[in-house]
Structure formats: C-alpha cells, structure tokens
Amino acid sequence: MNTAQHIQDTIKLHNGVDMPWLGLGVFQVEEGSELVNAVASAVRHGYRSIDTAAIYANEKSVGEGIRQALSENDITRESLFVTSKVWNADLGYEPTLAAYEASLDKLGLDYLDLFLIHWPVEGKYKEAWRALERLYRDGRVRAIGVSNFHVRHLEDLMQDAEIMPMVNQVELHPRLAQHELRRFCSEHGIRLEAWSPLMQGQLLQNPTIGEIASHYGKSAAQIILRWDLQHGVITIPKSTKAHRIAENASVFDFQLTSDDMERIDALNRNERVGPDPDNFDF
C-alpha cells in the first residue's frame, strides 16, 4: 500500500531518481494563458510534477507556466519533475533525438526529468528506445520510459534494451484496473503511472464511489486518486481550474480501508475511454 502523506512525497524509480506520486496532466489543454496559469497554480498548490507531450502542442505554454511558477515561488527548477513524450511520427533513432531537442526548445528547459515513447508503434519503438538510452547515458534526461505499452510490448522491448524502462504511463482507472500489467511492471521494477485516472469524468457520478466519498467527506475524484495511490500507481489528473487543482491535491490526509479498496476494485470492466494500443490507428 502506498504510504505517501504529502503532495511532494516521491517514489524511487529503479535508477534511484525520485518521482512525485501526484502530478498535473495537460492533455487537450490548448496553448495560452489558461494553461500557463494552471501550471503556475499547480506549483503554488504544492505540485512538483508536470506531464506534457509533443502531440499535445502545448509545451511552450507549459514552459511559460513553469517559469512563472519559479518566479513566484521559492523553488528551483531542480525541485520540479517535468515529463514529455516523443510522438509516433518521430519514432526512430535520429528522429527521436531531434524530437527531444524540439521539446526542450519549446519548453525552454535544459533537460527533462522523464522522456517517454508515447505509443508502441510496431517496428519503430526499439530504435526510439536506443535514442532514449543514449539521451539517458549522456545525462540529457534523468529517467526514460514508455507510455501505453502492454505486457507484450514491454517483453519485446526488454529483449534488446540495455536499460530497462523506468515508467510505463497508461490509461488506468477503476473501470480499467490493468491487473496483469500492474503485476508485470511490479515484478520488473517499472513504475506504473495512470493517465485519465478519472475516466475523463465518467466515474464521478458512480454510486459506489459517491457513497464512499460521502463517508470520508471527500469528492469522488479524491476517492479515485486515493485508490490509485494506495495501489502504488503514480497519477496525473488534468485540470485547468484552480479549485480542482487544489482539490485533487488533497488526497494525502486520509486512507481508504481495505473493504473500500475492494469495492472500488470490483468496478473493473476492462473498459477504455482512450485507444487500445493493440488497435490504435497510428
């Protein structure tokens, strides 16, 4: 069970790098002042992890938000954990190296804390992984990993990889509990990270979660995020609203009982809101 007691508590990746348990996701948030303010607000509320991607087309505003946060708060760049991802069109050795530089340029940063392969495009992700290994060995990035990889993709990658992935970021929520993947990643020292932890809001009206939320005096979102953490899953809920950003951070002052965890576990239907990596039109 996760024992994190504070929003800035971290989990150690297998290379010794500390990654925050909770971060801000910015998927489908457009460039502009709303995103700049959301990033700055998140840092102000204690967040230290920000997750973006090249395909989100918002890295410039994320970088501006980071710089605003650094100017407003008594913190350093080294206290933040910034993630981005290489898109499918840029998979390959040289293209991935170039994509990394492009992301840094848009973000206005000297390095990333975590760089991920966004999707497991068959025939391309191994060369991309070689590029990530080079970036890691050269000290250009603190940790490397993948996103949306099933067990079979991980097994295939690991056959030739010299450095094992440190993180696998996937769709994960009570309707898609990812039991097999969770076991595999745990056995191989790969930290699992949940995107769309609230199932794009579809679980917020679930009666079981609502009943548990009422018992704890918490919101449905807080219950789901706590469920993630207690299963040892890093999570990055998305919001641009300051009060939601603050609410999502308030999940470290209570613990769900084993009975409540089991009730939420029972909601699993292996149901996705995003593409299945096995059937995604890359």
From TrEMBL:
According to its UniProt record, the EC number is 1.-.-.-
UniProt domain NADP-dependent oxidoreductase: residue ranges? 23-268
Q: What's in the keyword line of the UniProt record? A: Oxidoreductase
Superkingdom of the organism of origin? Bacteria
Q: Pfam families from the entry?
A: Aldo_ket_red
Classification via CDD domains: AKR_AKR5G1-3 (cd19157)
What start and end residues bound the annotated signal peptide? Answer: none
Give the InterPro entries listed for this entry. AKR (IPR020471), AKR5G (IPR044500), Aldo/ket_reductase_CS (IPR018170), NADP_OxRdtase_dom (IPR023210)
Gene Ontology molecular function: any one: oxidoreductase activity
Class of this enzyme = oxidoreductase
Describe the family membership recorded for this protein in Swiss-Prot or TrEMBL: Belongs to the aldo/keto reductase family.
What is the recorded name of this protein?
A: Oxidoreductase YtbE
User: Which gene is annotated as encoding this protein in its UniProt record?
Assistant: ytbE
